[in-house]
Amino acid sequence: MAQVINDDVTSLMPPAETDRRGFLMTSLIAGFALAVKPAADAQTITTDTNGLTAGEIKIPTKDGEIPAYRAMSATGKNLPLILVVQEIFGVHEHIKDLCRRYAKLGHMAIAPELYARQGDVSQLANSSEIVSKVVSKVPDAQVMSDLDASVAYAKATGKSDTSKLSITGFCWGGRIVWLYAAHNPRVRAGAAWYGRLVPSANSPASPLQPTSPIDVAARLKVPVLGLYAGQDRGIPLESVERMRAELKKGTSKSEIIVYPDAQHGFNADYRPSYNKEASEDANKRMREWFKRHKAV
Predict the structure, then answer these.
(1) 3-state DSSP call for residue 140?
(2) What are 170's strand-pairing partners?
(3) 257 CB-side CA count, 13 A
(4) For residue range 213-225, what is the model confidence (pLDDT) as tens digits?
């Protein structure tokens, strides 16, 4: 029987507070996070670096430097910028590979390690432990600030046209896409993959994560494409319909696509949840979305 890996773990997140601490991660991990080693029969995609400049960088923030992965054309300039927001498993090999894929399509892709202050999740064995020890302690405000710093870094390189700014993210990162689109109106377009949309009894608002995507839907200005799974056990279709209703109250012209037969994590080619047909269609729709909204 295929192993089921649930990274829709906001349902496991307790209300949490955290003290100001030093940076616990100063460099990215190599390979895959322990909790999500590729399945034996996985269809893991590996993208080479031919024609790319790709590797770890350091992004200056208000209180120090965070590690990040960047991939871009080795010879390109004025590259549109795409921010890539991690799953709960951090910036591990899958997220790095996604950056390389986007770089091959012409972007400068940057995936900042957004847990750098709170801890390294790469050696934690399961999602519950990742949430309780690290993810529950990551403030949304910190994430917004670090994404802003990533945009500033790209602009400072002189190689990116940050007026063509897009953002995409997965599960934990999918939720962040909606929030960052509300935070930064200079984003041209977003693509949110199976990110939680509403609070629940198991995932209430907390002082560190006070806002859900549904709270910002009606006031969004940035067009976001939501990519969701009909068989997602952690994100009920009822919540997707509520989000659609709220989006219709606003002017962003955001849309949500649901793949009826797909599971949560259907873009994660290294996991049993991967759905090749849904993934390929969703990636095509994302590229068309970014083109339509002049993010490339």
Answers:
(1) helix
(2) 193
(3) 17
(4) 999 999 999 999 9
Beta pairing partners, 56? 69
Mean pLDDT of 252-268: 98
Q: Could you give the angle at which helices 172-183 and 140-157 cross, rounded to 10 degrees? A: 70
**How many Å from the N-terminal Cα to the C-terminal Cα in the chain?**
42
CA distances from 239 to 107, 137, 195, 216 (A): 32, 25, 11, 14
| Neighbouring C-beta atoms of residue 252, cutoff 10 Å | 20
E strands along the chain, which residues?
52-61, 64-73, 79-85, 108-112, 160-170, 189-193, 224-229, 255-259
Provide the pairing of β-strand 108-112 with 64-73.
Answer: antiparallel
pLDDT digits (tens, 9 = 90+) for 141-196: 999 999 999 999 999 999 999 999 999 999 999 999 999 999 999 999 999 999 99
pTM: 0.92
The confidence score (pLDDT) of residue 4 equals: 36
- One-letter identity of residue 272: P
pLDDT at 144: 98
Q: What pLDDT is stored for residue 39 in this prediction?
A: 77
Q: Could you give the percent of the chain with pLDDT greater than 70? A: 92
Burial (CB < 10 A; 0-12, 13-18, 19+), residue 250, is: middle
SS3 percent helix, strand, coil of the chain, rounded to 5, is: 30, 20, 50
CB-count burial class (<10 Å; 0-12, 13-18, 19+) for 286: buried
Q: What is the mean pLDDT of the chain?
A: 92
Between CA 149 and CA 288 the distance in angstroms is 27
- The predicted structure's pLDDT at residue 14: 34
What pLDDT, on a 0 to 100 scale, did the predictor assign at position 1? 34
The residues annotated as belonging to the active site are 171, 232, 264
List the CATH code of the domain at 9-14+23-292.
3.40.50.1820
